[in-house]
Amino acid sequence: MCQPGSFGIDARIVLDLAKQIQEALAAKDLELAMVVGGGNFLRGEQVAGQGIDRVTGDNMGMLATIMNALALQSALEGVGIETRVQSAIQVNDVAEPFIRRRCLRHLEKGRVVILAGGTGHPYFTTDTTAALRAVQIGATMLLKATKVRGVFSADPVQHPEAQFYERLTFLDVLANRLKVMDSTAISLCMDNELPIHVFSMREPGNVQRVLHGELIGTLVE
What we know:
Layout: H1 11-27, E1 33-35, H2 44-47, H3 54-78, E2 83-87, E3 96-97, H4 100-108, E4 112-116, H5 126-137, E5 142-146, E6 151-152, E7 164-165, E8 167-168, H6 170-175, H7 183-191, E9 196-200, H8 206-211, E10 218-220
Parallel strand pairs: 1-4, 2-3, 2-4, 5-9, 8-10
Antiparallel strand pairs: 6-7, 9-10
Helix pairs in contact: 1-3, 5-7
């Protein structure tokens, strides 16, 4: 939602994402649900131990995801896409509660659903939220947008020699502790045979390309 190393929301990035989604949905019949993080505002684990306990920190992080969800909803509606925000934390004045059947109904009607508030519980990442919600709504694939090209053997920013992987199995990821998603999310996807497509959202047009079904980045299945 912001430039690397920056804080808050960059409206240009949010609008670009909305336009890519709008173009992809106009060209292809898709049902799209999105889980947003809150790291551009706050990560619970980062503030924990600095006078703030972990549970409180995680609750703050989940509230940050709601702010991002509202910004994305506004951008999507600005380009003509009907959108609903559903939150695992009750904030009834600004978002619906997450109810699986209601979410499915929105998707059937062609609305984009933004799922905010994490799982509603501390100690669970938005990776786990994405895997959980994808399984709950019967998604055919989980798309993981990252800051790098896909999955590498190590952080490619700190280790330029790191090996890039185009295809991996879930067991490869778990056995080698590759930084795809946390192990809870990977295990949940593996147990439910839900493939994960990891790609960079920093390259222009990548979101649209992925939504069109193009394989860029890394496929974990």
